[in-house]
Write a structure and sequence with these properties.
It is a single chain. The chain is α+β, with helices and mostly antiparallel strands and 163 residues long. It has 2 domains: 2-46, no CATH class; 83-162, OB fold (Dihydrolipoamide Acetyltransferase, E2P) (Beta Barrel). The protein has helices spanning 2-23, 53-60, 65-73, and strands at residues 28-36, 39-46, 89-91, 96-99, 115-116, 121-127, 130-135, 140-145, 152-153, 158-162. Strands 3-10-8-5 form a 4-stranded antiparallel β-sheet, with no helix packed on it. A 4-stranded antiparallel β-sheet has the order 7-6-4-9, with no helix packed on it. The longest helix is centred in the N-terminal third of the chain and has 22 residues, at 2-23. The termini are far apart.
Length: 163
């Protein structure tokens, strides 16, 4: 029984590390926790620097050049270039699996055009068998949903855009 409690505290500990990573704009954090002689937790939390994906997309996707030049022409067209840099982006606080509804077959928490209040559940991210409700960081309207139900998500990846 003590193992379940330590697993729950490990999940909380890892989430706290992920928050530290984001709050201090770090790219990697590694911690080892020793509980007993043969019982320890070794955690490495890392994220991609958001500046790196943008140039790579531009180099790899050489054909859609209008996309890379459009953001300079009109600020409204900057959404396709890098959703993570959009001021209304809601990013993932963890690595896990995205669920758009409380259970299979249920209505999705939000859809494009949904009005949300700060704290409303946008979606669920399952991490280590724990269902984490992701709240709206601010009130607004869901403009774009950038993840798929049942799909994987990385730490810091944009989930949706709320304006």
């Amino acid at each position: 029984m003590g193992n379940k409690t330590s697993q729950d505290s490990d999940v909380s500990f890892i989430q706290a590390l992920a928050e530290l990573l984001r709050a201090n704009d770090l790219t990697e954090l590694q911690v080892k926790r020793d509980y007993a002689e043969n019982d320890s937790l070794n955690v490495r939390v890392s994220r991609h620097v958001q500046m790196a994906p943008q140039p790579q997309q531009a180099m790899v996707a050489g054909a859609p050049a209008p996309m890379t030049s459009a953001p300079m022409a009109a600020p409204a067209a900057s959404m396709p270039a890098d959703p993570a840099s959009h001021p209304g982006a809601v990013t993932s606080p963890m690595v896990g699996t995205v669920y758009m509804a409380a259970e299979p077959g249920a209505a999705a928490f939000v859809a494009t055009g949904t009005q949300v209040k700060e704290g409303d559940t946008l979606l669920i991210i399952e991490a280590m068998k724990t269902m984490n409700h992701i709240p709206a960081p601010r009130a607004g309207t869901v403009k774009r949903i950038l993840v798929e139900d049942g799909g994987p998500v990385e730490f810091g990846a944009p989930l949706m855009i709320i304006e």
